[in-house]
């Protein structure tokens, strides 16, 4: 349920807003305040998903409410309500962090569309914040082999630019990690990093996921929804496993790259986006092009910079460092004492055929941390990590 606060000193306008929103959805929990001071107090004491705030009010005007609220709860979106003479001020409030503004008297469609978009945006930002918490500590690329050192050097050169990057490599090699590093070291690092696993989304839903949709675009489209490109505005969108994307979705991605515009499913209205695109695949895209499963023009748009992540078997010198790195992290996660690996255990692990790459190595290290002795021995490896 979305919790919305309406701050408006004119009782008639306040009642109209409450009535429109309550009739639009029974999932809106609506609170109201008759002036800026009461509105700010309500914001301090409640977790709102959206605030509608008049500009001209006694005691404390809407600009002051916005500025004060952004200091204590910066993530709450504000829609400013402006009279005819307040339009310049309303535009200026967007520079101060307001999501949008609506004019008095409120136009029904304009109001509802703006409210839906603001709530969608807050939801996507929240999802991105959760994602950052989950992966934020896993950006470090571990290894000093020639192959990994070359990738690190490439990232240092490419990250500060807006050049598009195509990352290739087998499953489990760390392509996602490279994408995160590119974003973290870029000038967009404070903006969203939005990840889309193209292989995990059904082909009939991929366009809606990427570009959003309008209410009624298809059977289950019960409200307007922003897509991942909009959520990634000013930041980076990571299109993982892009080789699995449908041709129709590829065409729309190509347009987004060419024109910096997208349109939601169900409408031709253009939306400007400023997004850096990083893509990854475990497929041979040139072969996919030959077999008419991938657009050649899209490939050339994506592959401005190519980064190939090597298989673990091709960077065996990094295995001791990776084992030490994973052992420390897993010991903390599992709440067990730190364990070291004997030289013979490491030597044996280095000799294995790591077809599952780094992901497989991490799983094996976790198994050995849990089941092995105080120092993981060669016998532990043979017993619990036998290949």
From TrEMBL:
Pfam families xref list: AAA_lid_14 (PF25601), Response_reg (PF00072), Sigma54_activat (PF00158)
Domain of life: Bacteria
Ranges of residues in domain Response regulatory: 3-119
Listed CDD domains: AAA
PROSITE patterns, A to Z: RESPONSE_REGULATORY, SIGMA54_INTERACT_2, SIGMA54_INTERACT_4
Key word Phosphoprotein present: yes
GO MF entries: ATP binding
Modification 4-aspartylphosphate occurs at: 54
Record-annotated Sigma-54 factor interaction domain positions: 141-370
A GO BP entry: regulation of DNA-templated transcription
Lineage: Bacteria, Pseudomonadati, Bacteroidota, Flavobacteriia, Flavobacteriales
Stated name of the protein: Sigma-54-dependent Fis family transcriptional regulator
Keywords, comma-separated and alphabetical: ATP-binding, Nucleotide-binding, Phosphoprotein
Organism: Euzebyella marina
